[in-house]
Amino acid sequence: ENLLLSAGFNQEWAAASRSRPLRVYFIGTDESQDNSGFLQALNKSCELEVFKKYDGGYGQYNGQRSYKGTLGKQLNTDKLIEDVDKLIQGRQKPDVILMQALGRSFEIDKFKHYKKINNLKLINISLDDRLAYEEKTPKMEKYNRGSSGLNCIVDLVLVANTEVVAWYLKENVAALYFPMASSLDFYHPLGIP
Predict the structure, then answer these.
(1) DSSP code string of 39-89
(2) How far apart are CA 114 and CA 93, in angstroms?
């Protein structure tokens, strides 16, 4: 609770969000997975903007791959900044940037600076921490390529494994158990149409 409060998830933030739908900028990874109920449920409950690549494709660039001489993590960071700048200029600043990402997905220092100057809230959905909390990372890299590489910029992590909450709390990062689910508009309990 203290970590959430220190990240600005306080009564003032909640009160401002009650007067209108929550504005969420979502950075997904897999369109077929995200579009099987999750995006639809988000769209019903908030004002949703979805990250798209420069060519209009869904999801993020592979952070470690080069695209015409530019690393994917630079493209992801630059595109995020351009999109959020447009939203801010249009008086639609996101209440939350919600994403499913790893440390290798972004230029962390650039993202951290942008987040700070714009007072943004960042929530990461981390479903595979048992496998990806820490990834093999070259020693010259400042941040781990796994999900722990985002610890210095996230305000909250939603995890799919209960024991992982403690991993984040040890690092002074707010984390909540967030089991995978989907929209009841798509999936129904057996026997109920």
Answers:
(1) HHHHHHHEEEEE-B-TTS-BSPPPTTSEETTEEHHHHHHHHHHHHHHHHHH
(2) 13
Which run of H or E residues covers position 175?
strand 175-177
Pull the structure tokens for residue 130: 């048992």
Helix (H, G, I), strand (E, B) or coil at 183: coil
Tell me what percent of the chain is helix, strand and coil, each rounded to the nearest 5: 35, 15, 45
Q: What is the pLDDT of residues 6-33, one digit of tens each?
A: 888 888 888 877 788 999 999 999 998 8
Model confidence, pTM = 0.90
The distance of Cα 60 from the centroid of its chain, to the nearest Å, equals: 11
Torsion of CA 91, 42, 64, 107, to 10 degrees: 30
pLDDT in tens, 166-189: 999 999 999 999 887 766 776 666
